[in-house]
TrEMBL record:
Residues 385-484, 686-765 form the Carbohydrate kinase PfkB domain. HAMAP family: PsiMP_glycosidase. GO terms for molecular function: hydrolase activity, acting on glycosyl bonds; kinase activity; metal ion binding; pseudouridylate synthase activity. PANTHER family: CARBOHYDRATE KINASE PFKB DOMAIN-CONTAINING PROTEIN, ZGC:136858. The keyword 4Fe-4S does not apply. GO terms for cellular component: cytoplasm. Keywords: Glycosidase, Hydrolase, Kinase, Lyase, Manganese, Metal-binding, Transferase. This is Carbohydrate kinase PfkB domain-containing protein. It comes from the Eukaryota.
Length: 779
């Protein structure tokens, strides 16, 4: 059966339902970790984690070790952890390692506050650091579209709450946040019976995640009270949450997970300490201190039990993290099934226009019979079959209960799209380039593999780089190559053949996409460097953007040049690359220090950059703001710090345009027209000349081209088309970036290619085959 999938961006808009995007449009102070953002956008499982347990619940360094352990456990299930906190007045959904340590080290960060709903706005306004409680974590998880939240214990009705009205805000938050909260029940310092009664009044489902209906009591597996519902597997738990979504219900659910059995023995001892701590709090009037009561009680219980309670605390939250991760994985499957199920759409054949523009080859047979010249450009990456659906507009739907539309099938995959775009642009330049582009990709020996091969041939592209993997399955509606499960068996032979194609063709340029494994990238990059072939790396996604770093690490000792000639990250991928390079200590390598020193950047460069950042990002749309993000978001700093690894960075900024950051050295610096240039903010570039090494650093912004209104059709291949056009330009003129005019023309051409694909039903617009003709007419 043919599976039909919506285009990725369409799914993103459906999933997020505008809550987070609306907040960001209002310039809400929210920073979503790139890995979390990528996971949410692509429908991967995510688990929210609170941070009050880090800032107020445990002593340092146990607090840090626990937080790191919990994130590792969530990852072990296949989910992405999103620890939520407030840092410097900004909400963080997902934390970098340094941010996690900043929160945990109470000795150097003693002013971190405990953050509930009532505290959020004031804490942000005053630029505070804070740990999020269950209630505020629920708020931000719901805002981001995260469906599962794992924590230690839920707040509730305090003892004597019938008189003091001391009831945790956690309970009310569960009535308005559609999130599954996974905990070891209610904190044992509270009145568990009244808490369950209050949850019943609020209409919050309480589910025992165990073999019985016994409701756990934090340190012990049984409280003597019963939960109204029981499940014992993550799939059923996920179905409860998914049913809430299907019915449009706005409340969450509580999944109570008993502490691991091996900690049951000390549970009664710990409970005695809890009772004593509660009595002391009443005697010392600490019970009247509001939100300070819980941290005091937990600390006192730890003292009375000589640390035994701390070990149990860690164990129970690690256990809930495991269960939470498993539930999130099952929920992601259910959400994915909703979008992948068969729809009432007519399936159309591969568009006629895909068979046009075959270059100068008169027939398919001619292409196969003629001896092929060496490829000038090799693209190694994923080839797949894309199945794209497009629903009708609301006005077309009328009162129908189904969602009719159309489904079209075309070739896809990042590497394949880039190769097609480069082939179309090069073919438009004349007969000599009709066989210049070789796509090297593993395909299955199935019907989709044959389709990929046949349709590639029909496009006029050479197919001698398509490597069949016997017994493998071709990717369908997937940007995955080696991790899709279908092509892994033949990877050794694929790498061997790919290396052979590199050494025999010796292309001017080789492009790789991030769908390749780090091991494969390392082998291919090393082969290119041995043969003097420049490498262009397309990151593909935030997480995969770092797959190139092991290859860089292996080749950092190469003289003079940076190992990778070009890369084309977007802003999120750039940030992830920079962060991961730091984590891998690449920025501590002697080679990195030598290159950075040779750049010779000083106060003038910083001043010039500051001046450039004041310019409008767009020449025709003032609402897009200025280029301040170059400085405020650290874009320029991150890019420059990556120059020892990448000689040229072409940063895709969406509707903010393109930023090129590059380093010229040796003869390239001397012979380049940039050697006679200085900073020109009017022309949107900053130039720095090192007085010691002679190196030249260039940072230039290119505003986005105007997209005619109401012409956007498809976003799936715009970035790939931009990269393909760049590759085509570099094959024709390897030094295209070395002159002001040629760089401007190259980026303008690449952006024009992206615009054409945005306005086409195909991932790569067939109009790229006449791109040079269109540009000539325009000028």
């Amino acid at each position: 059966m043919l599976r039909r999938s919506f285009p990725r961006q369409y799914l993103i808009s459906l999933r997020n339902a505008s809550t987070l995007s609306a907040a960001l449009k209002r310039q809400a102070p929210i920073d979503v970790h790139p890995e979390v953002e990528d996971a949410l956008a692509s429908g991967k499982p995510v688990v929210a984690l609170e941070s009050t347990i880090i800032t107020h619940g445990m002593p340092y360094p146990t607090s840090l070790e626990m937080a790191q352990s919990v994130e590792r456990i969530v990852r072990s299930t296949g989910s992405i952890p999103a620890t939520i906190a407030l840092l410097g007045g900004r909400i963080k959904i997902g934390l970098h390692p340094a941010e996690l340590e900043r929160l945990a080290d109470q000795r150097s960060n003693q002013t971190a506050i405990k953050l509930s709903r009532r505290d959020i706005a004031a804490a942000i306004a005053l630029k505070k650091d804070g740990g999020t409680t269950c209630s505020s974590t629920l708020i931000f998880a719901a805002l981001a579209g995260i469906k599962v939240f794992a924590t230690g214990g839920l707040g509730g009705v305090h003892r004597g709450g019938e008189n003091t009205m001391d009831v945790s805000a956690d309970l009310h938050e569960l009535t308005r946040c559609p999130v599954g909260l996974v905990s070891a029940g209610v904190k044992s310092i509270l009145d568990i019976r009244r808490t369950l009664e209050y949850l019943e009044t609020l209409g919050v489902p309480v589910v025992s995640y165990a073999e019985t209906n016994d409701f756990p009591a934090f340190y012990t597996r049984r409280s003597g009270l019963q939960a109204p519902w029981r499940v014992n597997d993550p799939k059923t738990a996920a179905q409860i949450l998914h049913t809430h979504w299907q019915l449009g219900m706005s409340n969450g659910a509580l999944f109570a997970v008993p502490i691991p059995a091996e900690y049951e023995a000390v549970g009664s001892t710990l409970q005695e300490a809890v009772e004593q701590a509660v009595r002391e709090s009443e005697q010392q009037h600490i019970s009247n201190l509001g939100k300070e009561v819980t941290p005091w009680l937990l600390k006192r219980v730890g003292e009375l039990t000589e640390g035994k309670s701390l070990a149990s605390n860690v164990a129970l939250i690690e256990n809930t993290a495991l269960v939470g991760g498993q539930i999130a994985v099952e929920y992601a499957k259910l959400a994915r099934d909703i979008h992948d199920q068969d729809q009432c759409y007519p399936v159309t054949r591969i568009p006629e226009e895909l068979s046009t523009a075959r270059g100068s080859v008169s027939s398919i047979d001619d292409l196969e019979e003629q001896p092929l010249p060496d490829a000038l450009l090799i693209v190694v990456g994923c080839a797949a079959v894309d199945i794209t659906s497009q629903p009708l507009t609301d006005s077309d739907l009328g009162h129908q209960s189904t969602s009719p539309g159309s489904v079209s099938m075309s070739l896809g995959g990042v590497g394949r799209n880039i190769a097609e775009a480069a082939h179309r642009v090069l073919s438009s330049c004349g007969h000599g380039f009709s066989a210049a582009t070789m796509l090297v990709s593993a395909i299955g020996d199935d019907s989709f593999g044959r389709l990929i091969s046949d349709e590639t041939r029909m496009l006029g592209m050479r197919t001698d780089g398509l490597i069949p993997v016997h017994g493998g399955r071709s990717p369908v509606c997937s940007l995955l190559l080696e991790r899709s499960g279908g092509l892994r068996a033949g990877l050794t032979s694929f790498v061997i053949q790919a290396r052979k194609l590199i050494s025999t063709n010796r292309p001017k340029l080789l492009a790789v996409d991030g769908n390749l494994s780090p091991e494969t990238l390392e082998a291919i990059v090393s082969e290119c460097l041995r043969n003097g072939v420049d490498v262009f790396f397309e990151p593909t996604s935030v997480v995969k953007s770092a797959f190139i770093l092991p290859a860089i690490a292996r080749n950092l000792d190469q003289p003079s040049w940076s190992p990778i000639a070009f890369t084309s990250p977007n802003l999120l991928e750039l940030a992830h690359l920079y962060q991961q390079a730091q984590l891998l200590d690449l920025t501590s390598h002697d080679r990195w220090w030598r290159v950075v020193d040779d750049l010779g950047l000083g106060s003038k460069f910083r001043t010039d950059l500051e001046l450039l950042s004041r310019r409008d990002a767009s020449d025709y749309c003032p609402s897009q703001g200025s280029l301040a993000f170059l400085v405020n978001k650290g874009i320029a700093q991150m890019a420059i710090n990556l120059l020892p690894f990448f000689r040229h960075l072409v940063i895709k900024c969406g509707d903010l345009g393109v930023i090129v950051v590059m380093r010229l050295t040796g003869d390239d610096a001397v012979q380049s027209s940039w050697s006679a240039e200085s900073t020109n903010c009017h022309a949107r570039y900053v130039v720095s000349h090192s007085s010691t090494s002679g190196d030249i650093v260039v940072l230039q912004h290119f505003p986005a081209l105007r997209l005619p209104s109401d012409t956007l059709i498809n976003t799936t291949g715009a970035g790939d088309s931009l990269v393909g056009a760049l590759l085509a330009a570099l094959v024709q003129s390897p030094k295209a970036f070395n002159a002001v005019g040629s760089l401007q023309h190259t980026i303008d051409t690449a952006q024009q290619a992206a615009l054409l694909s945005l306005q086409s039903p195909c991932a790569v617009s067939p109009l790229l085959s006449s791109l040079h003709e269109q540009l000539s007419q325009r000028h």
